[in-house]
Structures are given as C-alpha cells and as structure tokens.
Design goal:
This protein is mostly helical. Helix content is 61%, strand content 0%.
C-alpha cells in the first residue's frame, strides 16, 4: 500500500478518468504511480506528456540496451514497482527476461552482449549514491552508440532514477505486471 493512497476513479475528474481508461487499455491496469500522482492533476498531465514524448524520441539505441539499462537502475534503487513493470515491458518487446536473474553478474555473464554490458555499467555509475561516470566511459559509449545514443542512454537512466526514487519515496510497490495479475494485455 503506498504512503499516499491511489486516487480512486470515483474521486477523479473527467481528464484523470480518461487517462485511467487509456492506461488501463494499454497496460491492463492503471499503473499505481499514475494513480498516486493523480492527486496533483497538473503534475500528472506533465508526467504523461513527458513520458509519451520520451517514448517517441527514444529511437537511437537498440531496445534491449535501453531496457536493460533502465531495469538495472530499478534494481539498484530498489524500486520493486519499476522492476515489475520493466520486466513486463521487456517481455512484451520479445526480450529474454530469464537472463534478468543474472544482471548482478553482467560483467562476466555470457547472457549479456558487449553493448549491454557497457549500458549496464553506465547505469551503475549514474545510479550510485555519488555519480561515478568517467570521461573514458562516456568516450567508449560514444564510440559504440554515437553521440545521440549516449544522450538517449543518459536521459533514460536519469529518468528511471527519478521514477524509481519517486515510487520508493511514496511507497509504491510491485503491482503484479510480471505475474499477469495486473497486466491483462496479451503479448504481441
């Protein structure tokens, strides 16, 4: 149970109800962070617009690289909701979710490609208590993904840090997207 209860549909205005309906169709359930933030409709609108724009703009990196980096942030911060939702997204993208169990040993695990290892290490460096990113690390990422790719990766990792910390602070925990309890949207 989050520290601030989710806003019920019966308490919501017409715009928030519309957002709930769209999210329910897209994900099979209203994401709980959305329902908690709905207490502040202005920030909810801003968040939805931002997330949609980021989703539309993030096309430079391979999906597997981006999603693994974001997932790594969720595990580092300890956001069980983000881990749950991120696993569901990877499953729907056709990615191998069984290897997520090996993410702590990514540096030596054959389950991860060179590109994935670079992105996960970058997520680690950006998600530590104190950012530990080095010039050499960014230069190597730029050689691998190009300048646009590095910016996209950095933005996605920073955004997931924000999401995970917001959810953790508000006590939002896993919702059952991975188990199928929340996500009733069929796989593509």
């Amino acid at each position: 149970m989050p520290r601030i209860a989710a806003k019920k549909t019966t308490e919501a205005g017409p715009v928030v109800k519309l957002f709930y309906r769209i999210a329910g169709r897209r994900y099979g359930a209203v994401p709980e962070p959305m329902a908690v933030v709905a207490h502040h409709p202005g920030l909810l609108r801003a968040n939805i617009a931002h997330e949609l724009l980021v989703e539309r703009a993030s096309k430079k990196l391979p999906v597997n690289v981006r999603e693994l980096a974001v997932y790594r942030v969720a595990t580092r911060i300890g956001c069980s909701w983000c881990v749950d939702f991120g696993t569901m997204l990877q499953k729907h993208d056709g990615l191998d979710i069984d290897r997520l169990k090996q993410i702590d040993g990514y540096a030596t695990s054959p389950a991860f490609s060179h590109q994935e290892r670079l992105a996960i290490a970058y997520a680690d460096a950006m998600s530590a208590d104190r950012v530990t990113v080095s010039d050499e690390q960014v230069a190597e990422l730029e050689r691998e993904f190009g300048r646009d790719g590095v910016i996209e990766l950095t933005y996605q990792i920073a955004l997931e840090n924000s999401r995970a910390r917001l959810n953790s602070a508000l006590g939002v925990v896993d919702q059952g997207f991975t188990s199928g309890d929340a996500c009733r949207v069929p796989l593509p």
